[in-house]
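=== RUN LOG ===
request id: a7f3
mode: sequence -> structure
chains: 1
length: 215
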Amino acid sequence: MKRFTLAAALCISLAGCQTAYYSAMEKVGVHKREILVDRVEATKESQQESQEEFQSALERLTTLINFDGGELQSAYEQLNDDYESSLSAANDVSGNINKVEDVAEALFSEWEDELTQYSSAALKRESEKKLKQTQRQFNKLLRSMRSSEDKMQPVLSSLKDNVLYLKHNLNAQAIAAIRGEFKSLKSDIQSLIDDMNRSIADSNKFIEQMNASNT
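=== RESULT ===
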């Protein structure tokens, strides 16, 4: 119960920090809409980096299972480095998606509150229409981001399994053992990369839509 209370307090504190941040940014002319676009861009870039890390790990593992002599310890260490880099990149992606969702919620909440302030029914209807349109566009983007995020964990788990197994079994038999897992992992990584490509395309489309509606 105590840990739950502390966790809840931390969440409230973080939410308060974000609110203060948005308020401070607005005072210097940077509004939530712009922050949202910037964070979508940052998420897209982190996804691209994550793609590169997963691809590198796949290539390293491909080299390893085709091992035909040489220093296995060095090959293992390189694969472990690729796993750690993939894990770090995946964490960055998740963190950025959370930031995107946070500012979007703040933006839409503010927008809804402002609808009550209109005296013109026509302008209110137009603003409400744009709000709903933007929410639909964002929800589509968020689903795409979360879908690719969900596929990262199984790939990371599989990579970790291979790294852990090789750590204490650096021999030809171990290479043969992980070779059986390779086809499935390769398929999962390719599926993840394809999902990220779709998410990146959705991010580009959303950014274009936001910029177009702001001109």
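=== NOTES ===
The longest helix spans residues 121-167.
Residues 1-30 form one domain.
=== END ===
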